[in-house]
Amino acid sequence: MANESAIRVRAKAFRVRIAFLIYAHAKMDGKFETGQKKEVMSLHVETDKKPCHSVFDNAIWSFKGLLREAPLAFAAMALQMPLHIFLAYGAVYLPALVVGEVTGGESLAHGARRMGILLLMMLAADILLLFLHAVSDTSQTIYRKQKTVELNRKSMDCFYQIYEKKENRDLHDRAIWATMQWNGALPVCDLPKRSLKLVENIGCYCLFGSVISFVSPALVPILTIAPLVNWFCARLYRRWEYANRGKWADIDRRLEYVQRMPGDFQAAKDIRVYGLADWFKETFKGLARQRLAWEKRQTGREFLSRIADLAVILFRDGAAYALLIHMTLSGEIGVDGFVLYFSAISMFASFVGNIVEEWNGMHTSSLSICDYRQYLDLPEWDGTGEADVDRHLRGAPEITFEHVSFCYEGAEEETLRDIHFTVKPGEKIALVGLNGAGKTTLVKILCGLYRPTGGEIRINGVPARHFARKDYYRLFSPVFQEVKTAFFTLAETVAGDFGGKVDLEKARECMRLAGLGEKIDQLPRGIHTKLDKQVNQDGTELSGGQLQKLMLARALYKNAPILVLDEPTAALDPIAENQIYLQYNRMSKDKTSLFISHRLASTQFCDRILYMKEGRIAEEGTHEQLLQLGGEYSRLYQMQSCWYREDYEGDESDAGKRKVGK
Description:
Helices cover 58% and strands 10% of the residues. It has helices at residues 2-27, 55-69, 71-103, 108-157, 160-163, 166-176, 187-212, 219-225, 227-243, 245-260, 268-273, 277-329, 335-376, 439-446, 469-473, 490-495, 504-513, 517-522, 544-558, 574-587, 623-629, 632-641, and strands at 31-34, 37-40, 399-406, 416-423, 428-433, 454-459, 462-463, 476-479, 562-566, 592-596, 608-613, 616-621. The strands form three sheets. Strands 8-9-10-5-11-12 form a six-stranded mixed β-sheet, with helices on both faces. Strands 4-3-6-7 form a four-stranded antiparallel β-sheet, with helices on one face. Strand 11 (608-613) and strand 12 (616-621) form a beta hairpin.
């Protein structure tokens, strides 16, 4: 009964753990509870009340980018301006020309000739416009892809400690919109396009304004000033929308996650066995209600701005048409003049509206460009590059931690405190300790993913900050706890490269050394088998343990002088784990290695053990020395090993209270 009770407790704990993990991802709140410590990442989402760049600044930036990377698109957009102006004037002049020919008593041939010439010119302009539109759209698509590549390159090259912050990942999600076409707009190209359209409409405004001034000079300011009310209302709405964009962006991120997770094959078993379907439904409903509330507020404010726009149109056009009708009835203008001025006033009003619309559109596009540029401008950290990394790749290096400390942004306490030790060339070090002791954080600092807030790390006596970041990464072959693969072949995944650049024999040897020999022998295409069945029909899905072995093979293939293993056997069965331990000496030959493990039996393969507690090195020595010391390492080892001794019955504090093997 005691055994059954323990099993139920562990099952319940596992279910709670799964639910918590999914909940934590869905909330995306950046908090991680780790034992007695709490590492709190920056949770505050910075919502800029004022854009980081002006519309003019973003327009200059956009024009430079377009001229540099897609000059054909710019040329096509620029050539469309005079054609649009000509077609707009032709559309106004043609009805007046017809009426004038009919009422003027000219011959049919005379009228047909004049109208035919105008129609042919307009047809030619239309055909040329279609061609320029096609050229512009194609070039803009290429330019958009270039900007998407630039954004993705920033994401992949961005210093990990910067990229890890939630506000920066939210900024990335907003920056993506600048490279996506939505509602007919493409922000990275839209600002130059709208700028040129603004110039075009101003040209039409001047042309048609001069025509309308022959009717009454007072009409021009009346038709111009009235739309400013609309512009002011639209501006108020845009400022409110920009100031609150971060609120629904966070909700959208959570909604996207909750929508995606039910279709994730890796989560399918947990959803079914632990009954998480209803939880997902309720979570989605709650988030959807929050998003709908913001949608209502957006729609309401936009509706008010549209009401103001309608009132302006009624006042503006009503006054202009009333004056025109009065002048016609009084004989001041003829029928052909009425048609010409009537069309000119209608078009003039639309150009005034277009000027306001393009100006507002430039502001909207500028906000997306602000997010894009702000993401690309995220602060970077790189070493001085004065150190020659090739000199340190030739053999196992020495690693020195000189009073290294680290504190997560926003955290009240340091995660690492005054870490000071030296790893000799070729030495195998084990890092052990309870969850939250700072082991993984220490490894991330060593690998150059974090910068220490105090002290420094030296490689063969050279400060880590003297290496260029990409050069520094070449020193390490890490295997982290979190395993993530893509839809490439096994060989490409191990090599981190494509096609002829992959050393197939080396990749095969590394996979066999990591314990994947039997698996690749079973696959029809062997190491050429692709991963991820959701993308590749003939792909394969690896288990958690097999994925860890694949990552271990990748580390072996890289063959860097420093081997870092962060719980590399956590998902392996005891037999596979034992095989890895037996091969560990071979894998770490001629390398300096750090090995993190919660299973203290594995530390016997290492030359020295560092026991960490609360961000400090509490004990240090060999396995035998630490056992003789009788400290925390010894007590933790005894707690783990007792479950494997046949004569162990436990005591009153043990939940199991059993005799294993009897």
